Amino acid sequence: MRLYLVVLVIVSIEAKEPASKYCDVVSTDPTKHCYVKETLSTVAHSPNQLSVDKTTNTLFFSFDFGQGEYVPAILHIDSRNLSVLKGVKDAFAIANDPTTGDMYFGGSHGIYRYTPRNKSLQKLNIQNLDIWWLYIKKNIYFIKFPSLSAYYYANRTVKAVPELKGGIVHQFVLDKEDNIFFINGTGLFGVKHGDDKPILLRDHPRFLGIATDNNGYVHVCSEDGIFVVTKMVQKVKKVINVQGVLGLTFDRGNHIIYSDSHEIVRLVPMATENYYDKFRGL
Ligand SMILES: *[C@@H]1O[C@H](CO)[C@@H](O)[C@H](O)[C@H]1NC(C)=O
Ligand SMILES: *[C@@H]1O[C@H](CO)[C@@H](O)[C@H](O)[C@H]1NC(C)=O
Ligand SMILES: *[C@@H]1O[C@H](CO)[C@@H](O)[C@H](O)[C@H]1NC(C)=O
Ligand SMILES: *[C@@H]1O[C@H](CO)[C@@H](O)[C@H](O)[C@H]1NC(C)=O
């Protein structure tokens, strides 16, 4: 019996090894040269808004249930347990509040708040809202559909975001210093906190998604990769070459999670000494 167990363990280690020796994705970021691709879930109707509750390392994503109504799915990252959250009507937009762990969902029926800890779901009492995008930092920030204009909700009132007043915004985030970064059909823009003149940072490729990582760095994704906005010089640098990225977020360990048209993937960096780089021929 004991011998049998030992054999099993060895077999499982050997079976795992080859896969972890090759780079799935090679990064241009010198500190994280190699990533292993982990498929967290395969999905038929691609989600483009994703968000992680860092307190439980649980990924929430919206997917089209078929009738144009977006349903929130819950994926516990460590166990890969996948379920659907009932009670939210149309969760097109998804965001999390990193200070409380609460999740927010927005769509044609307004904004909902979900507390994973006690599984309580509440609809916020704001009238006449169709939500396209949500972002939580101290206040609840959102973009209304179909005007694609940016607002925030504080002290029970809805106000326009001053830095973005009058503009068309597809998605936006705030960095550590509350500077705003947004994408629209023209490109990626930055606006300094309290300023009202957006600066065009890059007008190609077409950016589809934007997210801040756990350290407040702004990332954007496009059909051909993931980019980081490097703060010092306001440069936008491609860090990962992957095709067809629709949306992105970061897990508790600050690993990139992204969706494409058919799956949700987590990229886990590997130390240089633990892999063979097929491009370097070793
Ligand atoms: C998976 O998640 C569902 C819903 O949260 C829960 O009821 C179930 O117990 C979980 N299963 C496992 C194996 O953790
Ligand atoms: C769950 O927790 C949230 C946040 O602490 C609180 O507002 C809500 O009332 C709680 N719900 C229940 C059912 O305990
Ligand atoms: C909300 O009200 C408090 C107290 O009146 C005030 O200090 C704060 O600045 C207000 N916040 C916003 C975003 O207006
Ligand atoms: C994107 O935003 C900029 C800055 O507000 C604006 O000048 C531009 O017209 C917008 N692009 C589109 C396609 O709406």
From TrEMBL:
InterPro entries of this UniProt entry? WD40/YVTN_repeat-like_dom_sf
Q: Tell me where the signal peptide lies.
A: 1-15
Instruction: Report keywords, A-Z.
Output: Signal
Which domain of life does this protein belong to?
Eukaryota
Name of the protein in question? Ommochrome-binding protein-like
| Organism per entry | Mythimna separata (Oriental armyworm)
